[in-house]
């Protein structure tokens, strides 16, 4: 039994009945080789802000290309999902002029900054495209804070024009989740960012420490939005990942898979517990756990219902 458990805690993610669920890493600043050494199937979220934070000027295309190239080398043969610059709000950058904003989380942030600084995004896309030519990594690109199907289409057009072939967007605004049926056909994949999706669903500032109960990713309202996106993903054959903190909770990971997530991206320490939880449950069991969570009236109720019904070794 011990040996069986050890075997379950390495290699690709699978449910007990063999449904693949890619286990990916959230990556930011740090040594790419160290990130590449973890037992993951690739990168589900490359937070590229680290290249831009604390700089007086944006990095040049050549500097960016070099940084992306070393990251791709560390993940040769694996998928790397590069998120374009998520400036503004909780990630302010000195050279991105947003003007005076009373509510920066509702202002010029993420993909929206390309309205005022289009060059930042197009330069970044060309650097990612240039680096992708030098690698065996499967490079995907996605935009943060996309709110409408039109914005998704606009980003997809820009990325394809730069020469990138696998294009997606993050779902972290309730409006984008609610229109998943119109949005998903315009991209190749989506990835749900539960940190911001919780903030905007529950109207609770993620940078305030005072509202953890509202920001709890077990909130059934948040899970209903994941369900909406997951159902469209299953119908349309588009992959639906989750790259917010929710994916690192093994019990919640089961629920996310039950709601239609095909990949889960998290920080390295969470990988083996999530892999183990998946191996203990079939896809149908995940679906039943998801039904329990979505039917609850509170985060506590959802968590307790799933804990009581899941395999005790989760
Ligand atoms: C998220 O919002 O869930 C997410 C993954 O992106 P970030 O935390 O970088 O905003
Ligand atoms: Mg986000």
UniProtKB/TrEMBL annotation:
Coiled coil: none
Catalytic residues in the record: 243 (proton donor)
PEP-utilising enzyme C-terminal domain segment(s): 11-279
Recorded catalytic activity of this chain's protein: L-histidyl-[protein] + phosphoenolpyruvate = N(pros)-phospho-L-histidyl-[protein] + pyruvate
Binding annotation for Mg(2+): 172, 196
The protein's required cofactors: Mg(2+)
Binding locations of phosphoenolpyruvate: 47, 83, 195-196, 206
Subcellular location(s) of the protein: Cytoplasm
EC number: 2.7.3.9
Record keywords: Cytoplasm, Kinase, Magnesium, Metal-binding, Phosphotransferase system, Pyruvate, Sugar transport, Transferase, Transport
Superkingdom of the source species: Bacteria
GO biological process entries: phosphoenolpyruvate-dependent sugar phosphotransferase system
GO cellular component annotations of the record: cytoplasm
GO terms, molecular function: kinase activity; metal ion binding; phosphoenolpyruvate-protein phosphotransferase activity
Record's function text: General (non sugar-specific) component of the phosphoenolpyruvate-dependent sugar phosphotransferase system (sugar PTS). This major carbohydrate active-transport system catalyzes the phosphorylation of incoming sugar substrates concomitantly with their translocation across the cell membrane. Enzyme I transfers the phosphoryl group from phosphoenolpyruvate (PEP) to the phosphoryl carrier protein (HPr).
Protein family according to the UniProt entry: Belongs to the PEP-utilizing enzyme family.
Protein name: Phosphoenolpyruvate-protein phosphotransferase
Portion of the full-length sequence here: 251 to 564 of 567
